[in-house]
Amino acid sequence: MTFDINNKTVLVTGANRGIGRAIVEEAIARGAGKVYAAVRNVDSAATLVAEHGDKVVPIRVDLQDADSITEAAKVASDVDVVINNAGVATNSEALDGDAFTNLEFELDVNLYGLLRIAHAFSPVLKANGGGALVQLNSAVSVKAFSNVATYSASKAASYSMTQSLRESLADQGTHVVSVHPGPIKTDMADSAGFGEIAEPPSFVANAIFDAIRDAHFHAWPDSMAKQIGSAYQSFAENVVEADMSETPT
């Protein structure tokens, strides 16, 4: 089953900069009729509105604030595609003194934030015919790096949840996409020390909409991601995406 983004309504969390901004711009370039720029501070989306006019609608969403997400789902009741791009990283190693605090913060945003989005928007997507739910999970969700140990763990957890959502939402016709970027030119990549090998955010945006169009579950946007994805492909196809009738004990 394919999905055409043309004239559809899209919501993007963390839309004001970096990958999120690139996703908004790519959605509009592919013909989206409206894009909700879901951000913690609606003023931060002003430049997007100035550039794209009423195609961009700022809306407040804080992944740590369940009420803000519930209210956003009421406002964006016409949404066809929800892209949960927002996330946080603290660049903590496993044995750092603040590892517990940082992991708690990253789990609250990267894992519980996804779950809050899914709970609020799944009924909206169902009412509008199914659509798509997209989660930014990172290459570190399948290959941890010690300098971002707690971030890697939080993204591994969100990837696991995304797999479950794929199965849970299939019956309502919602296609779920798990996106696994490697180093992308963002402030997050710079702070983690990956700035020199990072690639453009547009790679991620293109991979997302290609995966939605082609009904793929995994998306590996950039050079490092493709390398990891190629090695992971057999497991992904034969285990993660396989139809297993019984839950392992």
From TrEMBL:
**Taxonomic lineage from the root:** Bacteria, Pseudomonadati, Planctomycetota, Planctomycetia, Pirellulales
Enzyme Commission number(s)? 1.-.-.-
Family annotation (PANTHER family):
5-KETO-D-GLUCONATE 5-REDUCTASE (PTHR43669), ALCOHOL DEHYDROGENASE, PUTATIVE (AFU_ORTHOLOGUE AFUA_3G03445)-RELATED (PTHR43669:SF3)
Name by which UniProt lists this protein: Putative oxidoreductase
One Gene Ontology MF term: oxidoreductase activity
Keywords (alphabetical) are:
Oxidoreductase
Superkingdom classification of source: Bacteria
Xref: Gene3D superfamilies: NAD(P)-binding Rossmann-like Domain
Q: Which family does it belong to?
A: Belongs to the short-chain dehydrogenases/reductases (SDR) family.
List the InterPro entries hit by this protein, alphabetically.
NAD(P)-bd_dom_sf, Sc_DH/Rdtase_CS, SDR_fam
- Keyword Zinc applies: no
